[in-house]
Design a protein that fits this description.
The protein is mainly α. Helix content is 76%, strand content 0%.
């Protein structure tokens, strides 16, 4: 309970409780963004508001992006990193097994849950598989000190920023190739006009010119016209840029096709989403994910090492960190949103004038906001404000795996065609009412479940799989569960 967590200074209970609270908060925050994809408010649909009059829908979407987009996944990764160290510090296990063996099994089964979530439950935005992979990759670094964790987090963040710029330079190269091709096309048109003028003059003189001279001129014109066509490579370079620009504009045909596909039966939905899931769990992971997720996990390890999540951390420091980090993060977020608007109006003009991409500082923005949110919540927790909220969030966070999968089940059944088929049928603001309903259901479910059981159903299954033993889960009468 919260009272017990705050009553005993410097103990592990507060540490576990605070991480549960943050995990629960992050889980609901993630849903605020993931409901966009679940409900059909896709990137294509968002472009309709970006390119429109910037009315109420745009302002609501912008506010959600500023406060939640990228930040909640970052907060969850931060807490996950802290949990990695806590698990490896365990002194007892239900069976005779070393910490390292139990940990690797734990990550591998988490990856299995992720594959199930992505390809069976059909959620291409799954994070369980990437977290499991990163958990294994970072195992070799878990013996480092706090300073080394901070340095590793900074290095990963800088590499992530570099990746953002790298992608932008690719677009700049494509645009440069496109302008070169357009210059060639312009020359072709000029040459064509010149030949047309010459042909007109020849026709007026065909009574004077010899027949063989006329034939020779026409043959030369035919050869010139044949050369005045783009090569295959030039056509591809032109198409690449035009495809990029087209992707920045709302396409009603794409929206209709997506609605029709996702409202279909399970097999068709699975087939249509398979490429997205494969891309998220393969190319995205090794190109971006290892730096994205790794930076936050390293930061979580660093914060745990300096006692950030424990009761020995000074209360006043939380508020200072929260104010500075959230203010700086929001400033970067506002810059990102404004640069995005300029980019969408005329990307060619943006590339010609802007030296950096609109999302250049997004990795720093999300790490600041995640840290700021964590500090603000822990400050409020220590100030004993909204105690009933923290108890509810702690219950949700304690069975986070169950609740995360449950969110997928609820949303896919409600929105996809093999369920109620509401994909693309709700307005943006209506999606947030759906979020509120899911939050209420999960809070009630979590609180009542933990009255009778030590772990959530999937957490219990996960534990049994890791230890390869059928373990008890039901609470004994009049006893408090332990971690």
């Amino acid at each position: 309970m919260l009272e017990q967590a705050l009553a005993v200074p410097n103990d592990k209970y507060f540490q576990f409780f605070s991480l549960d609270v943050l995990r629960g908060f992050a889980l609901f925050g993630i849903l605020v963004i993931s409901i966009w994809d679940f409900g059909g408010f896709t990137n294509n649909e968002q472009l309709l508001y970006h390119n429109g009059t910037h009315g109420g829908n745009y302002k609501l979407m912008t506010a959600i992006s500023l406060l939640f987009e990228g930040k909640m996944l970052s907060l969850l990764a931060l807490v996950f990193g802290a949990g990695v160290l806590l698990f490896l510090q365990k002194k007892e296990h239900p069976v005779a097994i070393g910490n390292a063996d139990a940990y690797i099994r734990r990550m591998m089964w988490l990856m299995a849950f992720g594959v199930f979530n992505a390809f069976i439950l059909l959620w291409p935005g799954d994070v369980l598989f990437p977290y499991g992979v990163m958990g294994i990759l970072l195992f070799a670094f878990t013996k480092m000190k706090a300073r080394a964790f901070f340095i590793a987090a900074i290095v990963c963040t800088l590499i992530y920023c570099g990746k953002q710029y790298w992608n932008y330079t690719d677009d700049k190269k494509n645009y440069k190739k496109y302008t070169a091709v357009m210059a060639v096309e312009k020359k072709f048109k000029a040459d064509s006009s010149s030949r047309a003028k010459k042909d007109s003059i020849d026709r007026t003189k065909d009574t004077v010119l010899l027949k063989d001279t006329l034939l020779k001129n026409r043959l030369n014109d035919s050869l010139a016209k044949k050369n005045d066509t783009l090569t295959k490579k030039q056509s591809e370079e032109k198409g690449t840029w035009e495809g990029t620009v087209k992707g920045l504009k709302y396409d009603s045909a794409t929206a209709k096709a997506a609605n029709k596909t996702i409202r279909a039966q399970w097999s068709k939905v699975a087939y249509s989403l398979m490429s997205r899931s494969q891309q998220k769990e393969s190319s995205w992971l090794y190109k971006i994910g290892i730096w994205d997720i790794g930076s936050l996990m390293f930061l979580g390890m660093a914060l745990l090492s300096i006692g950030f999540f424990s009761s020995r951390f000074a209360t006043s420091k939380y508020l200072v960190i929260a104010l500075i980090a959230i203010a700086a993060g929001l400033a970067l977020a506002w810059l990102r949103v404004n640069m995005q608007c300029i980019r969408l109006v005329d990307y060619a003009k943006y590339i010609e004038k802007k030296p950096i991409p609109y999302n250049q500082f997004f990795p720093i923005e999300r790490i600041l906001m995640a840290t700021g949110y964590a500090a603000l919540i822990l400050w409020l927790l220590r100030m004993k404000v909204f105690n009933w909220v923290w108890k509810a969030l702690a219950a949700v966070g304690r069975i986070a795996l169950t609740n995360y999968i449950l969110q997928t089940i609820i949303c896919t059944f409600f929105f996809y065609g093999y369920g109620f088929g509401y994909f693309g049928r709700l307005q943006q603001w209506e999606l947030y009412f759906m979020v509120a309903e899911i939050v209420l259901v999960q809070v009630v479910f979590s609180v009542f479940w933990l009255r009778y059981y030590n772990k959530g159903p999937l957490e219990w299954l996960w534990q049994c799989l890791v230890y390869r033993k059928w373990l008890p889960n039901k609470k004994l009468l009049n006893t408090e569960s332990t971690k």
